[in-house]
Design goal:
Strand order of the largest sheet: 2-6-5-4-7
Strand content: 25-35%
Structural class: alpha+beta
Distance between the termini: 29 Å
Helix content: 25-40%
Number of helices: 5
Amino acid sequence: MSSRELASLHERWTAYQALPELTNHWYWRPGWRADRQFYTWHLTFEHQPELDHLVSDVQRQLTLPGLDLVPLDGLHLTMQGLGFTDEVTDSDLEAVVTETRRRCAGMSPLELSLGPVDPDAEGIGLLVRPWDRVEQLRATIRDAINAVWETVPEASEGFRPHVTIAYSGSQAPTAPIRDRLNAIRHQPPAWVTIRQATLIALRREHRSYEWTTVATAPLGL
């Protein structure tokens, strides 16, 4: 594990030990509402049996008050937002997809390790490593957007690759969750191979994230 990843995991675990209660993840962020969708590039995890096994095993031990478990088909790694679907024109969307596909074709598939568990106030995730490969892909997507738009949405800084397996659904006390996490925090990680970036139309309803796939950008055509 690189020093950045190790430092992040240690810092977040230390903060979680002192956290008295969860923060409800499901408050509405600016611009969001139940009938609105958002274009965003994600990594998704279809046909990843090793990851499915790990997540199912961990989630069985996290059936606790305050946690909303993420279904296996809802696992994702948020990469780069584009904008609300009612604010992005079809022509701009097509141009971004074309440019992203062109640039991603020159990249290799990502071999990533997911785990161990990595908690914070709004949820429990899996540590993703190595960060540099994910950051390289995100930079490629941002460059593709910048070829179409003068300004790229969202800041380039502050990105931390992670995959959430349970969201905080209420202001529940953390002590029972912390005890359970301490028992499983050294579980071996799962390995995945990512062969594409996926552009989705994301909606946020029923205390979960759901989406429709809009386009894909294969890695290493």
